[in-house]
Amino acid sequence: MTLSARITAAAMLISCMVAVSGAQSGSSPDSPPEQITTDTLAYCRELAVRLEKMTGSAALIPATVLRLSTAGRDMCEQGLTRGGIMRLRKAIVLMMHPDMDTDPGPASSR
Amino acid sequence: MTGSGEGAAPAAGPAARPEQPGPRRDARPPIPRPRRRFNLLRSAAVRFAAIYAVLLSLSVAAAAGFVWWETAGRLSRQIEEAILNDAQALSDHWEVGGVPDVRSAIEERLSQNVDDDAIYMLADPYFERLAGNLSGWPAAVTQPGVEYEIRVERGGIHSLASMQRFDFPGGYHLLVGRDVTLRLQLTRLLTSALFWAVVVVVAVAAVGAIAVRSLFNRMLASVWATTAAISSGDFSRRVQVTGRGDEFDQVAEAINDMLDRITRLMDGVRQVSNAIAHDLRTPIARARTRLEDAMAHAGTEDELRAAIERATADLDAITGVFQALLRIAEIEAGSRRAAFCVFDAAPVLNGVAELYDAVAEDRGLSIAAAVPPSLRVYGDRDMLQQAVANLVDNAVKFSPPGAAVRIAATQSDGWTDIVVTDAGPGIPAADRERAVERFFRGEAARHTPGAGLGLALVQAVAQLHGGALLLEDAAPGLRAVVRLPAADPATAAPAKAAEAAAATAPYGDVIQD
């Protein structure tokens, strides 16, 4: 390998190392990692309750929200927690920002 | 008029001279030079190749670095920006409602985190969790405003998160982070791809560098071989011209022109030195013989004085030859070109005709001048006068009694022709080219006085003026034409002053050829 190639490779490696290690590595491999608590069934149910409160006070509920809410609850109960949580979160976002709904079906009135 | 005039030694014509050698192949062995050890860094080809490789590699590396900065770097900066924005918004909530408001804001943000990558934690002064989605405060996160890479577990899967700590009044602490697993995977893929791209380019650059070096060497090989052969004495070698008309061809042609010029100059120097040695040997020997003879046999002081006078005349003739040579050399050097100006050559030509009228009359000749009233020429008046006088002197010398020597001048097509025509034996066509060489003397001029330098001087004057000396057959006789470029009108303004100064100048000496 030529000198220029070695310099280039070294520069690339250094830049990669700087990029990757730009932040301090704060956890040692021996210590157990901290747990994310928003991937649990309990949180899923908490989200479902929050969504229910939002839909309960709303005059019109977008069809997409109802579909996501049902699907999210079902998936959580079936053990697909992350998928269920994601749908419930989407439903909450759509309740707060109806204009983000890309597939607005007929709204249901309560 | 014939040849360049003949010298003081009638028997010493060019035919009697030893043959002039051509480009000499030096019989001496080439000067041994110490063999240089091949040094890579001293090789220009290697340097060019290395520069090519380094520039190409650096260019690609710079491009790769820019791509990396615009992709992986931008992702990293976006994550940091999102963390800071979140922290600022939660800080605003803290200002409004303290812990409850921040807790509510965190829960709301988590409930809308569709990407499932947000990490929040609000802790009391003892780092006990008050809100957020992290099970506990990471022990490693100790300093506010510092970005930490922390391993976290999300649904049984380990991932990496970027976090920062922010402190609130009252000893409360906020931790905001983002899961960066996807970003890291993308960064690794991108870095790897760019790195290998650079490696490939460096390899290609290395191959290209070898090709460049080979091309460079091949193109210089001919130059090197030619110069080496010439330094060994082979002046016949020339650099090969490929015919592509590129820069290397231009260099080759320039070198070949230079070598041709050097060869011609060397031939000229060799010829002149040989001619000097040959032509001056006879008069010097004659003077010596006369002095020796007078010393041995002179009976009276008058006889001795007469012998010394004859020897002095011989030596004066030799001095005249040297003066003529120096004069030609001075003209060829071009040092007098700076004094050029526009002047009227008509009075010059008429003056020469008048000067030689008496000499011609003594020989039973007539001189007829057909010169226009005004003949503007850009050059040196004295030198032009000397050149024309040389031609007229030759014409008078070689024309038979009763003949006429004609001096004429014309201007057309940007050229001024000064023509001197005689009725002598002329110069055979085969000798005309050589007639302007120093010391050349034609067969018909063998028995006339002269050194063979007159026409050489005329040609030197003509060439100094940007013109030429043409020798043509006048049937019978010789027609000598001094062809000069017409005077530049832009320079005609100062001509009057020059003419006024030159009007009274004496005529220059005629070089006897």
Question: What would you note in describing this structure?
Answer:
- The complex is a heterodimer of chains A (110) and B (513).
- Chain A is mostly helical.
- Helices cover 59% and strands 7% of the residues of chain A.
- In chain A, helix 2 packs parallel to helix 4 (81-96).
- Chain A is elongated.
- Chain A starts with a helix and ends with a strand.
- With 513 residues, chain B is of the alpha+beta class.
- Chain B has a domain at 335-503: Heat Shock Protein 90.
- A 5-stranded antiparallel sheet of chain B has the order 2-1-5-4-3.
- In chain B, helix 1 runs antiparallel to helix 2 and helix 3 (247-297) packs antiparallel against helix 4.
- At the A-B interface, helix 1, strand 1, strand 2, helix 2 and helix 4 of A face helix 1, strand 3, strand 4 and helix 2 of B.
- Strand 1 (24-25) of chain A pairs parallel with strand 3 of chain B, so a sheet runs across the interface.
